[in-house]
Amino acid sequence: MDELAIEVHDLRCAYGDHVAVDRVDLTVARGELVALLGTNGAGKTTMLETIEGHRRPDAGNVRVLGLDPVRDRLKMLPRVGIMLQESGFSGELTTWETADLWRALRSRGGDPDAVLERLQLAHRRDVQVKQLSGGERRRLDLALAILGEPEVLFLDEPTTGLDPQSRRRTWEVVGALVAAGTAVLLTTHYLEEAEELADRIAILDGGRIAARGTMAELVAGMAATISFLHPSGAPSLPPLAGSVATRHGDEIVVTTPELQRDLRTLLAWADTHDLRLQRLRARDGSLDDVFDAVAVAEPVAA
To answer: Which cell locations does it reside in (predicted)?
Structure first.
């Protein structure tokens, strides 16, 4: 069995003179979740639609489970699950009727009752789709996408509109699918979602992958930060490895490659002078920092 469920090589997609995806390579293995991030207009949706087989690439090759997603679409579809940003299902059908109809259309089997239970929708099985809340409809979208346990799952902004509890439950369901061997390609605007779920992350910028790697690889080059309110009447700060800036008048921000050392120095300084560092925060580099760096720098790869 081929371990690579999704293979994208030298993909190019254009709308007239506008190049939306520019010579992109990407792979997703079985049992792996890859998060595709980027600002609006970065090319995420075009790339996802092309991999799903909704449009032909202008150049390059795409394979899903070894199949061409356009030419071999009828062979591919029963083996994949797709969760779009908007489903467009009939509002007149009940939740259960929608799941049962989807099961029949997809020819993949699956138990509508079990999948509704899994997404905490069993108590809404006899409610018309049009009467569901926005979050419930989003959970129904995911339920239909995973019905029959697909080998590959495409998730386009899966937790938009969900409350924190439902978002966490969605993460648990997706994580269990990955652990069972499903390959997942996820797009999301929630960076914490990518941090929580992704084995690897790719950040698109201007149609190209500007950064990619595991979380550890991506944040390895990002500086840590320490921030606090400058105590009134305090003496000058001690020598630090990082750079010091002031924002909003009295907030000190230290950007440092030596988080532990500089934090220890600052705490000793505060203790020596009997100072209280209000709103003290210290954190390592984050995916937010990587995302911001991509927006202002030339493309880099981890």
So the answer is: Cell membrane
Do 210 and 203 touch, CB atoms closer than 8 A?
Answer: yes
Looking at domain 224-284, its CATH class is alpha beta
- Give residue-wise pLDDT tens across range 141-191: 999 999 989 999 999 999 988 889 889 999 999 999 999 999 999 999 899
CB-based burial of residue 247 (10 Å sphere; 0-12 exposed, 13-18 middle, 19+ buried)?
Answer: exposed
User: What is the pTM assigned to this prediction?
Assistant: 0.84
Q: Which fold has domain 4-219?
A: Rossmann fold (3.40.50)
- Fold: same for 4-219 and 224-284: no
- Contact call for residues 43 and 21 (beta carbons, < 8 A): yes
Domain ranges in the chain?
Answer: 4-219, 224-284
* CA nearest to 158, candidates 146, 147, 150: 146
- β-partners of residue 224 are 256
